[in-house]
C-alpha cells in the first residue's frame, strides 16, 4: 500500500460533470486538488460517432449501459430488467447523453409542500438560490437555444443561435399548434458557434455517444480540462475501494490502480464524493467500518433509498414524406410543457415534458424506429419497406417526474463483483402508480397529436414503456432532515465530517426534465460554498 507524500487539500472521487465543475472552481483558488476516476479519458476521435458502424457500436462497446459494455473499468449493476445509463470515464455521463438542457422550475423544488406523495420532500434550497448557478453553468458550457419561453422564469444566461434541425422540427411544431399546445425550441448543451476552443456543431446527427468536434459540451471540455490547466492532478484508472475515516471524520480514500493492481491511499483535508447516482451510494455502503457499521452517512438507513429515474414512454411518429430526421443533434428539437404542472383533474400529481427528437440513421429506420416496433420486413419486401421508413419518422419522449419511495433503492450485491472483486451495485425499482397514470395520459395525447397531422404511431402499446435508468437521481439526496436524506442543503454528509457529496444522486426530486443543467448548477453552488467555508477555516460538517 502506497501513500501520498503529504495531505492534500481536496480529494474528488469521480471525474464526471459534478466533479469537474467543483474542480474547476477549487483549483482556481490555488487549492491542491486530486481527482480519482476509475475510467479513462476518452478522446473525441475514439468515440462511436466517427465509425460508419456507429449505430451498431452504440448497441455494443459504446452502449450507455455498463452491463452491455462490460469493460474492466465498469462495475455491474444488477437487479431485474434495470437498464442503467452511466459511463465510467472522465466526463462521466456526459459521454453518453443527448445534451438536452432544461432547467427545473420553481415548483419542482417544493413537491413535499405541494403534495407529499410517496417520500416527496421539499428541496433545502429554492429555484432562486440555484438560478445564478444555472446561468454560470450555461455560460461555461455553451448553450444554443432561444430566450423567452413563457413557461419558464426569465434568465440572463447567454444563448447561441439554435442549431438547425431537419424539417421534422417544423412538423412537430405544426402538430403542437394544431392541438393548441405550448411548444418551444429546445435548449441544447451543444454549440452552434465556435466557443472555448471547441468547434461548432456540423449537424451530423450522430452525437448521442460523443462528438468528434467537441461541439457537445461535456464535463471534460467545459470543466475538467480547465481544472487540469489550473493544477488539478487527474488520476485515471483509479478505482476507489473505500473512503477512509478517523472515527466520524473523512480523511481520504483507498484506491486500486487498474493498470498495475497496486493499492494506494490519498489523505485529504476534505473529501468530495461525486461518483454518480449509483456509484456514490455503492461507495458509501462499501466504506462501512466499526465507527460507521451501516456505511457512511447512513445512520438513518437513507443511503441508496429514494432512487428516482424519471418515467419514460417513447413513441415513433411515422409520416409519408421525408423529414431530414438524420440532420442536426439527436437531442430534441422541440418540447412541450403543456402538461407540466400538477392538475389533479387528470388523476395524478406532477406532470410531463413531451420532447420531439430525431430518429437517427438507417439502422434505426430498418429496425422500426427508436422503439423498434415497426421494423422493415425481411426478404423480398425489405427494400420497399425500408424506403417507406427511412427519413420518415421522429419520436416523442414522454418524460414524467418520478415519485420517490423507500423500496426503490441501491444496495450491494452479495454475489456479483466487478473486475477488482468489489461488490456490484444492486438495484430495486418499480414505477410508482402515479407516474404510470401520467404516462398513460401522455400516450393518449401522442395519439391525438399524430392524428392531427395524418401520421401513424408505433410504440409500447397500452402499457407505457419504461426503460429505467437514464437519469440516476435521489439515492443520496439532499434535505433538511437527516432521517429522510443523506446530506444537508450544502451537500455536507449527515454524521461524517469533512465529507461532501454532490452529483446527480443529490437531487431531491427530479422534475420532468433532463438533469444535466441542474446537476452542473448544484456542483457550482457546492464549490462556492466550499470555497467560503475553507476561507473561514471552518471544518465541513452537517448539523443534525
Task: Give structural attributes.
single chain; 544 residues; alpha/beta; FAD/NAD(P)-binding domain; Cholesterol Oxidase, domain 2; 2 domains; eight-stranded mixed β-sheet; 12 helices
What would you note in describing this structure?
- By secondary structure, this protein is of the alpha/beta class.
- It has two domains: 1-141 and 217-305 and 406-427 and 473-544, FAD/NAD(P)-binding domain (3-Layer(bba) Sandwich); 143-207 and 311-400 and 432-465, Cholesterol Oxidase, domain 2, CATH 3.30.410.
- It is built from twelve helices and 17 strands.
- The strands form three sheets. Strands 1, 2, 3, 6, 7, 8, 9 and 17 form an eight-stranded mixed sheet that branches. Strands 5-11-12-13-10-16 form a six-stranded antiparallel sheet, with helices on one face.
- Helix 1 (17-28) packs parallel to helix 7 (219-229) and helix 5 crosses helix 12.
- The chain is globular, with a radius of gyration of 22 Å.
How would the blueprint of this fold be written?
Layout: E1 2-3, E2 8-13, H1 17-28, E3 33-37, H2 54-57, H3 66-69, E4 77-78, H4 111-114, H5 127-141, H6 168-179, E5 184-185, H7 219-229, E6 233-236, E7 238-246, E8 249-257, E9 263-273, H8 276-286, E10 311-318, E11 334-336, E12 352-358, H9 362-367, H10 382-389, E13 393-400, E14 409-417, E15 423-428, H11 433-452, E16 456-458, E17 499-501, H12 516-536
Parallel strand pairs: 1-9, 2-3, 2-9, 3-6, 4-15, 9-17
Antiparallel strand pairs: 5-11, 7-8, 8-9, 10-13, 10-16, 11-12, 12-13, 14-15
Helix pairs in contact: 1-7, 1-12, 5-12, 6-11
Keywords: FAD, Flavoprotein, Iron, Iron-sulfur, Metal-binding, Oxidoreductase
Protein name: NAD(P)-binding protein
Organism: Aeromicrobium yanjiei
Amino acid at each position: 500500500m502506497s501513500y501520498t507524500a503529504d495531505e492534500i487539500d481536496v480529494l474528488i472521487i469521480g471525474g464526471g460533470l459534478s466533479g469537474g465543475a467543483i474542480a474547476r472552481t477549487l483549483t482556481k483558488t490555488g487549492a491542491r486538488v486530486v481527482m480519482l476516476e476509475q475510467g479513462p479519458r476518452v478522446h473525441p476521435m475514439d468515440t462511436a460517432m466517427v465509425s460508419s458502424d456507429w449505430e451498431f457500436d452504440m448497441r455494443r462497446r459504446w452502449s450507455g449501459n455498463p452491463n452491455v459494455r462490460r469493460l474492466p473499468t465498469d462495475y455491474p449493476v444488477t437487479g431485474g430488467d434495470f437498464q442503467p445509463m452511466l459511463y465510467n470515464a472522465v466526463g462521466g455521463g456526459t459521454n453518453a447523453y443527448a445534451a438536452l438542457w432544461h432547467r427545473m422550475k420553481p415548483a419542482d423544488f417544493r413537491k413535499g409542500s405541494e403534495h407529499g406523495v410517496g417520500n416527496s420532500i421539499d428541496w433545502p434550497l429554492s429555484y432562486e438560490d440555484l438560478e445564478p448557478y444555472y446561468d454560470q453553468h450555461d455560460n461555461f458550457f455553451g448553450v444554443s437555444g432561444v430566450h423567452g419561453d413563457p413557461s419558464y422564469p426569465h434568465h440572463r444566461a447567454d444563448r447561441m443561435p439554435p442549431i438547425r434541425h431537419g424539417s421534422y422540427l417544423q412538423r412537430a411544431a405544426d402538430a403542437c399548434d394544431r392541438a393548441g399546445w405550448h411548444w418551444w425550441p429546445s435548449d441544447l448543451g451543444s454549440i452552434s458557434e465556435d466557443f472555448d476552443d471547441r468547434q461548432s456543431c456540423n449537424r451530423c446527427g450522430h452525437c448521442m455517444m460523443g462528438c468528434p468536434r467537441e461541439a457537445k459540451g461535456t464535463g471534460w471540455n467545459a470543466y475538467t480540462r480547465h481544472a487540469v490547466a489550473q493544477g488539478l492532478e487527474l488520476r485515471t484508472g483509479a478505482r476507489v475501494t473505500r473512503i477512509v475515516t478517523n472515527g466520524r471524520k473523512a480523511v481520504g480514500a483507498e484506491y486500486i490502480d487498474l493498470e498495475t493492481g497496486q493499492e494506494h491511499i490519498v489523505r485529504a483535508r476534505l473529501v468530495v464524493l461525486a461518483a454518480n447516482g449509483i456509484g456514490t451510494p455503492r461507495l458509501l455502503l462499501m466504506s462501512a467500518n466499526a465507527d460507521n457499521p451501516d456505511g457512511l452517512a447512513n445512520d438513518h438507513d437513507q443511503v441508496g433509498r429514494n432512487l428516482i429515474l424519471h418515467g419514460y414512454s417513447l413513441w415513433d411518429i411515422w409520416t409519408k414524406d421525408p423529414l431530414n430526421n438524420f440532420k442536426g443533434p439527436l437531442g430534441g428539437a422541440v418540447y412541450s410543457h403543456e402538461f407540466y404542472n400538477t392538475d389533479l383533474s387528470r388523476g395524478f400529481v406532477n406532470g410531463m415534458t413531451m420532447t420531439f427528437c430525431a430518429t437517427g440513421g438507417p439502422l434505426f429506420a430498418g429496425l422500426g424506429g427508436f422503439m423498434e416496433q415497426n421494423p422493415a420486413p425481411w426478404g423480398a419486401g425489405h427494400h420497399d419497406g425500408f424506403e417507406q421508413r427511412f427519413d420518415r419518422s421522429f419520436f416523442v419522449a414522454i418524460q414524467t417526474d418520478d415519485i420517490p419511495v423507500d423500496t426503490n433503492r441501491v444496495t450491494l450485491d452479495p454475489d456479483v463483483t466487478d473486475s477488482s472483486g468489489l461488490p456490484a451495485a444492486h438495484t430495486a425499482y418499480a414505477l410508482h402508480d402515479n407516474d404510470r397514470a401520467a404516462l398513460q395520459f401522455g400516450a393518449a395525447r401522442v395519439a391525438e397529436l399524430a392524428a392531427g397531422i395524418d401520421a401513424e404511431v408505433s410504440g409500447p402499446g397500452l402499457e407505457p414503456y419504461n426503460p429505467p435508468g437514464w437519469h440516476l437521481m435521489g439515492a443520496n439526496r439532499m434535505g433538511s432532515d437527516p432521517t429522510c436524506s443523506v446530506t444537508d442543503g450544502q451537500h455536507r454528509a449527515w454524521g461524517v465530517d469533512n465529507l461532501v457529496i454532490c452529483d446527480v444522486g443529490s437531487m431531491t426530486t427530479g422534475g420532468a426534465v433532463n438533469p444535466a443543467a441542474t446537476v452542473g448548477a448544484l456542483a457550482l453552488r457546492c464549490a462556492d460554498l466550499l470555497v467560503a467555508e475553507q476561507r473561514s477555516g471552518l471544518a465541513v460538517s452537517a448539523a443534525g
